[in-house]
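agent> step 3/5: call structure_predict on target 'Zinc finger MYND domain-containing protein 10' (Myotis myotis).
agent> reason: downstream docking stage needs a structural representation; sequence fetched in step 2, passing through unchanged.
tool.input:
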Amino acid sequence: MSDLELLLPGEADMLVRGLRSFPLLEMGSARWNQQHEHLEKLNMQAILDATASQGEPIQELLVTHGKIPTLVGELIAVEMWKQKVFPVLCKLEDFKPQNTFPIYMVLHHEASIINLLETVFFHKEVCESAEDTVLDLVDYCHRKLTLLVARSGRGEPPEEEAEDVSPMKELQTQAELMEFEIALKALSVLRYVTDCVDSLSLSTLSRMLSTHNLPCLLVELLEHSPWSRREGGKLQQFEGGRWQTVAPSEQQKMSKLDGQVWIALYNLLLSPEARARYCLTGFAKGQLLKLRAFLTDTLIDQLPHLADLQGFLAHLAMAEPQPPKKDLVFEQIPEIWERLERENKGKWKAMAKHQLQHVFSPSEQDLRLQAQRWAETYRLDVLEAVSPERPRCAYCSAEASKRCSRCQNEWYCCRECQVKHWEKHRKACVPVAQGGRVK
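tool.output (status=ok):
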């Protein structure tokens, strides 16, 4: 493991062995919270190991103990809870919680799992160990990317909450912002799945190429580029969990997310296994030929393999479209979403009311105990180590090394910037001893 260890090898093995699936009714319960804490530790340790390039024992443990299907099942379960139960909770008139953090942790659970999967799916053996649940994972990623394309047509999600909003309304805003980041993680996971296209089952290939027509969806993502925007005449890209202004000298550089889309397209269009399964209809041909406008010399210099894709598109432009295939195909279908929906159909409101009474209305003592456990899980030294970049000054955005001593939340590059920012920061500056929390 890495030099900065959150988990000892024996402890990591124990936590991985203990991973299990929970019914939707138990989301947010004490046992569920304990597993969420374990997943957060595994997630952070996996990032530390990957960053240190000293082997990745978390990935090996998940494969050895066959826990990737468990993680996929939990990912889809919390996705369904967010779609079916959370909206009911928000509408309950008698639910006015003083503290919404227990609900936030359930919402954040999906982000924790997809982040862990993004870290470990880089390795092909992880995709292979997913077994039949890779079908469910492909469907999950398709749902997220479809929402990402739809959102890009509506404009950017809000970044800041208005003042004097209810806690539940603020939680809904946070959930929407989180959904955007989860979708970007799902894009990376999908790209890693396409790296394994030569070993995927025919059912999975058919799901990706015929049922969902992922190549055409990826073209739409490149067209809309929801991770890029213009703000005040400046180009910004979403990276490292926030929007960052791109310097003029860097604007021709391919972003990480654009790179993920191009690599996924390369895998799905040029691998022999996928080419044999993908039907290049008139619609598909028209969509794919849009890629030629993006394939500049500058782009190909950064990702030379795209020269092969450029040649494929030149050949496609001259070829006649293929008629839609009408073959009778027997194939597997994803099971997790349909099973959960079947088991819980008609129970969503009752589930929300049960969780309101027994899960999301904790006593002050329960909250204090939970806060202590969260503080042990989210250690400052570990959080800083797994952060994708150095902290930035809250006032001038320069690289920062000093933290507000009162709340330990905001960062500054110097004392002068902290003083200038104090009027704006004062309202949010809650001392740690009084319940302040670290981002």
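agent> step 4/5: record observation. The chain has 21 helices and five strands.
agent> proceeding.
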